[in-house]
Fold:
Amino acid sequence: MNLLPLPAFTDNYIWMLHDGRQAMVVDPGDSTPVLQALQQTGVQLQAILVTHHHADHVGGVDALRNATGAAVYGPARENIPGPLQRLSHGDTVQTMGLRFEVIDVPGHTAGHIAYYCPDIDGEPLLFCGDTLFSAGCGRLFEGTPAQMLHSLDQLAALPGNTRVCCTHEYTLSNLKFARAVEPGNAAVLHHSAQCEALRAANQPTLPSRLDLERAINPFLRVRQPAVAQAAQAYDAQVNQDDAVAVLAALRQWKNEFR
Structure:
């Protein structure tokens, strides 16, 4: 299987998975990069997976559906125009001989879902939309800190070798924030240097891996004493033993961080 991040807009990735004959894409906010990739590879689009309703993730769906006849899958509890198969936690998507499990991950939006395949070429694969970023998480536009914590906890519990396919190239700015939260975290410093080299060469920093994210991502590390202490230093009212409060403070800090 070939996994390709197709750049779109200023910092989006539309993920494409193909086997040389058939393809699927995730969160096509723009149809043009997908149609170009289909033409270049000569593959047929079979499925379109959508994680949430934001325009930069669904804007190309209609054009791709009309051009290719691909089946569309998306969250049951979000307003996404059909026809599409509406999915909730525990549902599965079968396409291209692969089986994706649906995980409810509200927080960024109220009905956000993720897609997890336990084995593609020997490694798990996660399409997490805007819930989990490398060294970060999505803004809380519609959900609560408690919802986001539960969503991130679910994703953090997946196997460490899971490839994490986020949909924005936010890694460098997220790592800058992670260094402010945990200046003594050697894994953050090491990965920052690697990612700066990748971006200097115009290469994507994604996909990430879940074991790496557990080491560098402050939003997956809210129960670590250093992270909780940093959240309390930002907001003195934060109870370090309250993971939801720590996450809420980190998210507000990140919203303001420059």
Q: What stands out?
A: DSSP finds nine helices and 14 strands in the chain. Residues 236 and 242 are 13 Å apart (CA to CA). The two ends are 38 Å apart (CA to CA).
